[in-house]
Fold:
Amino acid sequence: MSVAVDGPAARIVVALDVDELDQAVALARRLSGRVGWLKVGLELFTREGPRAVAAIAEHAPVFLDLKLHDIPTTVARSVASVARLDAGLLTVHASGGPTMLRAAADAAGEASGGRLRLLAVTVLTSTSDDELAAMGCDGAEVQVPRLAAMAIASGIDGLVCAPVDLGRVRAAVGSDALVVTPGIRAQASDSDDHARAMSASAAVRAGADLLVIGRPITRADDPVAAVEAIVATLA
Ligand code: C5P
Structure:
């Protein structure tokens, strides 16, 4: 059984972005009881499959980041399959549109009885406004809150957005929706590939409920100390 965590540590989702299950389980074991969630991404899931979810779920609630985007029937059936695994959060792409999002939400409700909650990814942080324009879309400032409001209206539980968009997303969806952001760094100079990183405390002030943090914890010499340092800034 995974360990539930209280207080500010419950906001932290550690991204286990490794492709070997052994490495992921070793990290999960160290972080068990210290963070709210562990995120299993596409790399690990495509390599190891459902057994990765089962192995990580022994240590913490699992956030399965598959970013589903397909025809409504296929997404609904895939969501129902995930509902049979021990995951509590699953991502879909908001750009799949209202019919796909509604089908996903209905499938999660029917197959899991509310145990599996869905998050819609608005615009990937790697997508520039020039790329959005090439796809016929408005810039992120308009597109992100538009997709966020559409996803919540379609029955999705929450959103994933970049730190810079937190204020606009929170304003678009109100206080009930779960809002999740990656791109958390102690210092802007450590931003890795994030265009605009934010500190954990600033992201919470801007409206984030959950903070997805990967490399600052997983690549630290002491991942537990790295978690504790971040949690201290949220207390
Ligand atoms: O950068 P970090 O290792 O903290 O990334 C944690 C998560 O943030 C990744 O699993 C990915 O989902 C997301 N990410 C992002 N944009 C980036 C890099 C990572 O949204 N440029």
Remarks:
- The pocket of cytidine-5'-monophosphate is lined by residues 15, 17, 41, 65, 125-126, 182-183, 192-194, 212-215 (CB under 6 Å).
- The chain has eleven helices and eight strands.
